[in-house]
Amino acid sequence: MNKLFVIGLPRTGTTSISVALLDYDFSVAHTAFTKRAFELADVVSDAPCFSDYRQLDGLFPGSRFVYLRRDITLWLPSIRRLLKKMADNIQPKTGSFNPVLKRSFYQTFGSLDDADAFSDAHLSQCYSDHQAQVLAYFDGRDDLLQLDISDANSLPTLLDFIGIEHQTGKSLPHVNRGNVVDHWKETKHPNKVNPLSAGVDHRQFFDY
């Protein structure tokens, strides 16, 4: 396996997957904004993977991808809380967040200044469009796993997909519940990869 990219949208369980795989000797980046971060990580999740999976597929041939599903009625209030919390910081021109993250969110959710930016109708359409695009892109291939982390067998299914033996009794952790969004930042583990890791190109991102 070259890389594993988790390409589900935010609030579908990207942090839970990332935390779980730290304990299987994978180097994991939950978000990655430099070339070096992608080079260092075995697993990359969240931004910009959910918007850039096509480009990453070309850059890292032989990689595998995990698309995370979530009940839309649970996802809507969760993503709405997140987007409202991030709104000022992901403004394309004035926001303080990393430019790669801002672009990734803008491509997927559009402008948060739009009147219907936080409506159920708009966010549901964003979810449906993303899902349809992912499934169309990977149609006929065997390197995409669709997973709902609320399923009891989600961890063994994931580990089987990447060729790792499952330990009986272990299950995926469900982190970032409710208003919590910073569990990854608080997680201490030697296998965590800094999303802003610097290399020979300093902190440059890919030029695609």
TrEMBL record:
InterPro entries: P-loop_NTPase, Sulfotransfer_4
Gene3D superfamilies: P-loop containing nucleotide triphosphate hydrolases
Cross-referenced PANTHER family: P-LOOP CONTAINING NUCLEOSIDE TRIPHOSPHATE HYDROLASE PROTEIN (PTHR36978:SF4), P-LOOP CONTAINING NUCLEOTIDE TRIPHOSPHATE HYDROLASE (PTHR36978)
Name of this protein: Sulfotransferase family protein
Originating species: Sinobacterium norvegicum
